[in-house]
C-alpha cells in the first residue's frame, strides 16, 4: 500500500493558506501537475523515453529551475548540451544486477556487473542501457486543496527487453507560498529474481538544475547543504561536498532577475545516501554506492551492497523542492522538516 501523509504534515507546509489549489491530470504520454490553472510540472511516461522524468519544474513565481535540454532545445539561458541522460528529475541506478539472469548486452561501463539504467548509451547494434517503462498510471487523488498525488507502475528491463524488476512510484504534489514539493514514494519489487544494486557513483534520485543555477562567477549561484556547508563560486566541478552524506542539498541563484532555487531531499527512513553532486548542475542522492564509487565517505569501509531477495521489496522516499528566494527565504529547511515527518 502507498504510504500516506498525515494531516499535521499538510498543516506545517510553509504558508499553505496563501498557496494555489493543486490538481493532477493524467494524459496519454504524461501526467500534468497544476497550481490553479498553470501547469507547473509534467511527468513524462511515454513508451519512447528511456525512463520517466519530471519536466518542467516551475517555482511558485513561474520560473523553471531545472535544465530544459534535451527535452527542449535552444531556450534562453541554456548553455550546456552534455549528459543527455540527465533529464530534469529522474530516478534509476547505474548498475542493477539481476541475479541468475544472463545479460546479452553489456554496459558501456566495464566495471558494471549488471544493467546500466543511468546512461542512455547506444552503439551500432542499439541501446546499451536498461529501460524503465511506465506500464500503468492510476487515478489521481486529491488529499487537500494544496496536496494531490498519483500512483504509477514501472517495469525495469534489460537492453534486450528482459524484465528484471517491478516498481510502484507515487508522486505527491504539495503547494506552498514559498515553494512546491514533489515527493517520490518509491517501492522496488524483486518479482522476477534476486536483485543486487551495484557499486557505482552513477545514481540514483537526481536532478539537473537550470544552467543559471550552476555556481559560477557569472551566475553567482550557491550550493548549500542541510549541514550548513556552502559552496560559492569559483568552484571546481568536483565540489568538496561530493561523495558525502547530507539530508538535503540546494542550488539557489537568480534566473530572469528573480531569486529561485531547487533542493533534493533525502528522507531519513532511506538507507543513507551519499551525493553525486557536481558544479555543472547535477544533484543526485545515491544510497547504493560503496568503495568503488570513489566517494570519499565510502573508502574506509562502506558496508555490503544493498540487495533484494526474490519476492522482497525496498521502499525509498525522495523529494524535489522548487522555491522562490534563497535557501533561507525559500524556507528549504522548513520544507524538509515537513517532508521528514511523512511516514
From TrEMBL:
InterPro entries: DUF6807. Keywords: Signal. Residues 1-19 form the signal peptide. It comes from the Bacteria. This is Methane oxygenase PmoA. It comes from Gemmata obscuriglobus.
Amino acid at each position: 500500500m502507498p504510504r500516506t501523509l498525515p494531516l499535521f504534515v499538510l498543516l506545517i507546509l510553509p504558508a499553505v493558506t496563501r498557496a494555489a489549489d493543486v490538481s493532477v491530470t493524467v494524459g496519454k504520454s504524461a501526467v500534468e501537475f497544476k497550481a490553479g490553472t498553470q501547469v507547473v510540472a509534467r511527468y513524462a511516461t511515454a513508451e519512447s523515453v528511456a525512463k520517466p522524468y519530471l519536466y518542467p519544474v516551475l517555482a511558485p513565481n513561474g520560473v523553471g529551475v531545472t535544465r530544459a535540454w534535451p527535452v527542449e532545445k535552444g531556450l534562453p539561458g541554456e548553455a550546456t548540451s552534455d549528459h543527455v541522460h540527465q533529464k530534469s528529475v529522474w530516478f534509476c541506478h547505474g548498475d542493477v544486477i539481476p541475479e541468475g539472469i544472463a545479460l546479452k548486452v553489456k554496459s558501456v561501463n566495464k566495471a558494471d556487473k549488471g544493467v546500466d539504467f543511468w546512461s542512455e548509451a547506444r552503439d551500432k547494434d542499439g541501446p546499451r542501457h536498461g529501460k524503465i517503462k511506465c506500464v500503468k498510471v492510476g487515478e489521481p487523488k486529491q488529499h487537500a486543496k494544496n496536496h494531490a498525488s498519483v500512483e504509477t507502475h514501472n517495469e525495469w528491463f534489460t537492453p534486450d527487453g528482459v524484465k528484471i524488476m517491478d516498481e510502484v512510484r507515487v508522486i505527491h504534489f504539495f503547494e506552498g507560498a514559498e515553494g512546491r514539493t514533489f515527493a517520490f514514494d518509491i517501492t522496488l519489487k524483486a518479482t522476477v529474481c534476486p536483485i543486487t544494486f551495484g557499486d557505482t557513483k552513477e545514481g540514483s534520485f537526481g536532478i539537473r538544475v537550470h544552467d543559471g543555477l550552476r555556481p559560477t562567477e557569472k551566475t553567482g549561484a550557491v550550493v548549500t547543504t542541510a549541514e550548513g556547508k556552502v559552496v560559492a563560486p569559483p568552484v571546481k566541478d568536483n565540489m568538496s561536498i561530493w561523495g558525502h552524506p547530507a539530508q538535503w542539498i540546494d542550488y539557489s541563484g537568480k534566473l530572469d532577475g528573480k531569486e529561485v532555487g531547487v533542493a533534493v531531499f533525502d528522507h531519513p527512513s532511506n538507507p543513507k545516501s551519499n551525493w553525486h553532486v557536481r558544479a555543472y548542475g547535477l544533484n543526485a542522492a545515491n544510497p547504493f554506492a560503496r568503495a568503488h564509487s570513489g566517494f570519499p565517505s565510502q573508502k574506509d569501509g562502506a558496508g555490503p551492497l544493498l540487495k533484494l531477495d526474490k519476492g522482497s521489496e525496498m521502499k525509498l522516499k525522495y523529494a524535489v523542492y522548487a522555491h522562490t528566494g534563497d535557501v533561507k527565504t525559500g524556507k528549504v529547511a522548513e520544507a524538509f522538516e515537513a517532508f521528514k515527518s511523512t511516514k
